[in-house]
Amino acid sequence: MSDATEPKLLFGRGYYTDFDQFALLLRVTTEREGEIKAARDIAGPLGVPDARAAGLVNLARGFDILERTRYLPTTLGRLIARRDPFFDDLGTLWFLHYTVAFEPRQIVWNRFANVLVPGTPRFTLREFRALFTDLGDTHADYSAGDHVEKETLTVLDAYTRKHFSRLGYITPDGAGGYGAGDREPVPPLILAASLARFRDRHHPHNTALSIPDICTAPNSPGVIFNLREDRLRAILERLKMQPGFTLESRADLDQVRLDTALPAHAWIDRYYDSR
Questions:
Q1: How many domains does the chain have?
Q2: Residue 35 CB: number of other CB atoms within 10 A?
């Protein structure tokens, strides 16, 4: 297993997410394409120490805006740099929430959105960290403790103080805990993009996705967005007229089909066109 694909407890190296720095990172890696060979090569242009640059690169890779083995924007990163360069759009943020959380190798983010938020109306930092007590069997005691402590703070900071706070996914309750916020709606075309990513990553050989799986399967959009089934079905209904999307909900069928020629970024581009 390569370093780019192995599970990470601390994929941001203890640094917090910074979408303003992501915007600058995309600009620098685009303008200096082919010149950057190491994270330290972008530290100067970003105005940060080498260690912070390395942490930012790792975070950007976790959000799939920077390639995992090269210092180049991904297709998604290039699209965002062109259509939403300052990460202002809620659709962009919802898709990045899905992207960082649906990936099992990003352990802390993945369990946060797969297990903690959907299953716990209110939680504390201590309860969040308790999700990882099993990792002592597969990680050194130091990393299973220190790394979890740091990464849980990074996650909570992203959703309560940084750009993700605008989603209303969680909110501090004023008593030392966290609960569901007043959430912004997930745009239908962003749900379609997330379905395409879910299919391609977790069900690459399926031509259709069952709606029950979309609602409740691990890493599914229904779980990661924490959508009730009735709300998710309502959004699917709004997608029925979209080219490349078919809702089959009749007789013994309860599924959706997305054109396999349309990857996630094509749906996001369509979303940007629709604004």
A1: 3
A2: 11
pLDDT in tens, 168-215: 999 999 899 999 888 999 999 999 999 999 999 999 888 899 999 999
Domain of residue 164 covers: 90-180
The tokens for 22 are 């992501």
On whether residue 6 sits in a domain, the answer given is no
| pLDDT < 70 positions in the chain | 1-7, 136-143
Tokens of 149: 């402590």
CA 271 vs CA 67, 242, 266: distances in Å: 23, 11, 9
Contacts of 224 (CB under 8 A, 6+ apart): 97, 98, 101, 102, 113, 114, 194
**CA-CA distance, 198 to 73, in Å (whole number)?**
21
- pTM over 0.90, yes/no: yes
Task: List the beta bridge partners of residue 172.
Answer: 178
